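Supplementary notes (optional reading)

For those who missed the lab, this is the record we used. Protein: Potassium transporter. Length: 559 residues.
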Amino acid sequence: MLGMCMLIGDGILTPAISVLSAIDGLRTPFRSVVSKSLVEALSALVLIVLFLLQKFGTSKVSFMFSPIMGAWTLSTPLVGIYSIIKNYPGIFKALSPVYIVRYFMRNGKNGWLSLGGTVLCITGSEALFADLGHFNRASIQATDISLYLIFIAFLFTIYPSLILTYAGQTAYLIKHPLDHDDGFYKFIPHSIYWPIFIISTLAAIVASQSLISATFSVIKQSVVLDYFPRVKVVHTSSSNEGEVYSPEINYILMVLCVAVILIFGDGKDIGNAFGVVVSLVMLITTVLLTLVMITIWRTPAVLVALYFMVYFVMEGVYVSAVLTKIHEGGWIPFAISIILAFIMFGWFYGRQRKIEYELTHKIDLERLGVLLSDPGVQRVPGLCFFYTNIQDGLTPILGHYIKNMRSLHKVTIFTTLQYLLVPKVASHERIVVKKLGLKGLYGCVIQYGYADSLNHEGDEIVGQVMSCLQAHLRSMSNFELSSDPLEVEREVSEIEEATRQGVVHVRGKTRFYVGPNGGWFDKVLLAFYEVLHSNCRSALPALGVPLQQRIEVGMLYEA
């Protein structure tokens, strides 16, 4: 949860600092005309446009990403080489570990504190795996050849590009030490300034897009795992399950990104906050990967210890350095993370208590038979779809409904909607029905994928369920020799008659009740959960059911 909160913070800070840093290049040639406030306003405008385009999906614009990043990867090292030759050809002496040791011996504590500034040189990798949902299984399950090609591409393009770019900036700063506040744009030759400015701005937008998409992905995954309040999730691709867009999250991110720029317009404060987020995400990832190595991969203890010690110590040193920047903007991600963590924990706690209550008080077929055998309970005409989210048993709302309404429809289909991680479920696999052991009672599971639309089907889904149920009953009579065909046809006729008499869809709506003897922890957390629950999206698709056919049954779950 903490890692996800920090990654969402990354999704807020990365667009802000990337676009702000790129647009700030306007001030170098026009410092007397372009003010800091104008740069902030232009950066906010670029971000607003970027967020407004999110609803069209990443796949619509992703064809431009490779050329942009290719131009960035090739152009900046060429500028770096020019700067090295012009300013300080001996800059590559800095690659020797001797100078690192001497630097820390000479500067001591100040050398350690300087790591908080250099951490921004390794950003970007923390978001790499959050975007894996944008690729299909074949792309991720790379073969030996593709792994080799990835290694070659990194070794001979990305890594040299970064080294030459940073070395060129450093060579310029050695000769012009007072230009450290704007070292990137000042080391670019005037003749190619504007092409590099355009490439840098486009690259910043691409970097921002990757973190925005990553934020959508992790929130969608958290919603599926019941760790985050339900929000609207739109799949913008019919082939890749991870390409998603959430309107609510998109506009919240937009407001927060613009607020960060306008309130903390100084790139230094945003950079300090960014460094805290990146280093903590990496440290948390190291801890989690260590747990995976121990519990899932069963990696030998020596290798686990070797991996953990190297990376935890290295990242821990960076974390300790950036934490000194808390008072200089580093508190921003902690404030965001505390709010998000409270939302996630409150939601998760409420959902866990709800599941515990339902599993403890679920209605099994034996209990249902006892309830229906009560002489005071009537079987009324019509067809009822009673929705339940419990696979092994029935929701306790059913018992509450029967006890208070003293009735149940002659034909009742207990329906569960099941989400599958596939684009579309085949029509012959979408609906699975079964006959329960009691007269007029049936079970139904409606399966759907992320590209399936269930919001405009209404009577169509009812007709599909009826067709599947009738076919199921007739097929059972063919396989079971003891079945009476006339009895089966009579049962089918009763279902058809119930459908003609009227269809109703019953859904539960639950709330927690904390009694006088309940603890303050439950009172606070469950009250907060109720606020979240009442303002989030429904767990069930609308199915296009007409309003006059919907019934909501309220029930208090005693905590």
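If you only remember one thing from this example: The CA atoms of residues 261 and 343 lie 24 Å apart.
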